[in-house]
């Protein structure tokens, strides 16, 4: 099958792109990496009348640190984050651990973080990290620019608070302090499948106690999800040494957080090879594993400087 016919424009500025999107009553789609868009058009599951290709807008192709935030332009490719050194501190580690789960190298060389936010697939790794970290989505439309908190941005599968005439120009993520450890664990049937379940976590420890916890759940509801009930289990818990062996004791805070995420936070949707109960079990296990990875990351990060967290 081939795409239905469409008009194609290639603006050179954000203003031109916004004008193209807002200057017509035709259905329009934005093309950046095109990894999801082109396939859907090829299968004619979507039939835009206009495609706006933003790849020749230089101001969208850049990433920089602004104060305590990382600003990722709309044309920054997934592959940029494969090196943990691309972004300072624990945030760089988290992004590098997540990005290797996105498809395969050719896809990562063209797809973009902003494109993932625009597509809003429930199994998107970037979207769950954005929700967990309180990211901000910058959009520009005919009425000017505005910023949308990630917690309010996702409305459901492929549905967001972005208006059809608006263009995503950047995603802003908060940088993480050196007393924060991060983890990301994903479960899927094959390497090239979407995640059945994945978990992102960031643990902050102050004076030997978990002072902040952020947990993002992938494909555990109809949109990316922050596991707030699970986070509350962790706040105030002692950052004790991890138990030996592959299995966490039932009473360990990480195990209790996993159960809270599965039973209180998640509303999983059944799909082939993974019914809702299977997903709940996977969420409970993966939250525990991801928190363990975050704790290990934090210990390795702090040990050279001060002999471990205090």
Describe the fold and architecture.
Helices cover 33% and strands 24% of the residues. The protein contains ten helices and 14 strands. The strands form four sheets. A five-stranded antiparallel beta sheet has the order 4-5-10-6-7. A four-stranded antiparallel beta sheet has the order 11-12-13-14. Strands 1-3-2 form a three-stranded parallel beta sheet, with helices on one face. A hairpin with a 2-residue loop joins strand 4 and strand 5. The model has no long low-confidence stretch (mean pLDDT 95).
Q: Class by helix and strand content?
A: alpha+beta
Outline the low-pLDDT stretches: none
Total number of helices:
10
| Strands side by side in the biggest sheet | 4-5-10-6-7
User: Using DSSP, what is the number of strands?
Assistant: 14
CATH architecture of the largest domain, by name, is: 2-Layer Sandwich
The overall average pLDDT, rounded, is 95
Integer count of domains = 3
- Name of the CATH class of the largest domain: Alpha Beta
Tertiary shape:
globular
CATH superfamily of the largest domain: CO dehydrogenase flavoprotein, C-terminal domain
Q: Sheet bearing the most strands, described?
A: 5 strands, antiparallel
- How far apart the termini lie comes to 60 Å
* Rg over alpha carbons: 20 Å
Level of helix content? 25-40%
Strand content: 15-25%
